[in-house]
């Protein structure tokens, strides 16, 4: 949990500042920075597909540690980037690091939790991540006074610390032997028609969720300057820290996971659509609050449903395959967000991006209703074995 706090804090200490520094300060085109952020997202989630399968064969811990070190290198390199090709390469390295630790981290959490506790534990993991999301932008904004390079290097050091924490504390888990090939689990996940539909439909949601880093950040910059990034991330994550756990517990008792996920996506879409009418920074913060109420329940619901889809011995592979939705959606969202913003300005129709995002959310919610129809409610085991003292060697 503490390492997850560090990883989210390090990420959000620098990623919002990429947009602010290169677009706001250096006046690069918004579409070019959308390309940078999209490449990182696509690289990370594309590799996560294989990272989950690797964790089913080797265990999650080695991949998590290697990923943290590569993420550190990528973020530090960003601080020294002065041209678009160099920034793209640094983003690529950072994305590879994330691809190594993303699915294995979820598989490790699944391995050490009982099925009936899984939603609660994913919620707690998200809360610690949101604590990092609160502190990261505030620290990053403060470090921006010393320059973007300083902020990027500090974020890299945080990932080194996270690697040290997990190196000493993460329980060693080993996968149950399946006797298949390295990527047989991915083949099973890809052949699961219902899970494949679920993964593809969620692309729409992740197009929406990435806009906090792109369109929402740029709108905040226009309304209140560079220092606005700290408050919007602090509000979003702070609400999640305060309300996510009780909200998840309440919704678990009242509605199904499918209804939870559909309603959350519609709430996020509505919040982004309302931003078309925002003219002041307080009004923007109100929309961010509504946006956060939607996003805070998506992660536990999505991860719990993914674990429910997966056979016990292929949890890592299913988490890996599910990352396709975040990879494609994040890449498309980052790139298209910048393109729509530039296009709306050229056409004299600044509401274009917000209208497009709202319609995307409505279609995604309808798609989830179709994709999850008939999914069994019974939870499953983890598919991993904890190593006892007698197995240390």
From TrEMBL:
One of its GO terms (cellular component) is plasma membrane. Keywords: Cell membrane, Membrane, Transmembrane, Transmembrane helix, Transport. Residues 1-379 form the Major facilitator superfamily (MFS) profile domain. The chain crosses the membrane at residues 6-24, 86-103, 124-145, 151-170, 198-218, 230-247, 259-277, 314-340, 352-372. GO terms for molecular function: transmembrane transporter activity. SUPFAM superfamilies: MFS general substrate transporter. It is a multi-pass membrane protein. It is found in: Cell membrane. PANTHER family: MULTIDRUG RESISTANCE PROTEIN MDTH, RESISTANCE PROTEIN MDTM, PUTATIVE-RELATED-RELATED. This is MFS transporter. It comes from Deinococcus cavernae.
């Amino acid at each position: 949990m503490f390492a997850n706090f560090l990883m989210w804090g390090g990420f959000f200490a620098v990623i919002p500042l990429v947009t602010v520094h290169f677009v706001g300060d250096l006046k690069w085109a918004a579409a070019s920075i959308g390309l940078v952020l999209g490449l990182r997202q696509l690289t990370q989630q594309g590799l996560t597909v294989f990272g989950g399968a690797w964790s089913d064969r080797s265990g999650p811990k080695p991949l998590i540690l290697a990923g943290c070190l590569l993420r550190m290198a990528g973020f530090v390199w960003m601080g020294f980037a002065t041209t678009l090709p160099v920034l793209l390469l640094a983003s690529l390295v950072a994305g590879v690091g994330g691809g190594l630790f993303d699915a294995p981290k979820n598989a490790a959490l699944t391995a050490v939790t009982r099925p009936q506790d899984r939603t609660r534990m994913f919620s707690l993991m998200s809360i610690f991540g949101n604590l990092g999301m609160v502190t990261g932008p505030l620290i990053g904004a403060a470090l921006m006074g010393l320059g973007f390079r300083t902020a990027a290097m500090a974020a890299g050091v945080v990932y080194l610390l996270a690697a040290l924490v997990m190196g000493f504390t993460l329980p060693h888990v080993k996968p149950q032997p399946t006797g298949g090939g390295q990527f047989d689990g991915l083949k099973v996940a890809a052949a699961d028609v219902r899970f494949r539909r679920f993964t593809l439909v969620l692309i729409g949601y992740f197009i929406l969720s990435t806009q906090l880093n792109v369109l929402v950040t740029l709108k905040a910059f226009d309304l209140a300057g560079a220092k606005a990034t700290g408050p919007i991330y602090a509000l979003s994550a702070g609400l999640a820290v305060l309300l996510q756990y009780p909200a998840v517990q309440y919704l678990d008792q009242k509605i199904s996971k499918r209804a939870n996920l559909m309603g959350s996506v519609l709430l996020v879409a509505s919040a982004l659509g309302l931003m078309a009418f925002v003219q002041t920074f307080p009004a923007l913060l109100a929309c961010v609050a509504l946006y956060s109420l939607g996003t805070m329940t998506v992660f536990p619901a999505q991860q719990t449903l993914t674990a429910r889809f997966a056979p016990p011995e292929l949890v890592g592979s299913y988490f890996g395959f599910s990352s396709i939705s975040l990879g494609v959606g994040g890449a498309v969202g980052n790139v298209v967000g910048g393109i729509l913003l530039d296009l709306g300005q050229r056409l004299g129709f600044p509401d274009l991006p917000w209208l497009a995002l709202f319609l995307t959310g409505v279609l995604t919610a309808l798609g989830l209703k179709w994709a999850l129809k008939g999914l069994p409610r019974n939870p499953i085991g983890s598919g991993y074995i904890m190593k006892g003292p007698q197995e240390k060697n």
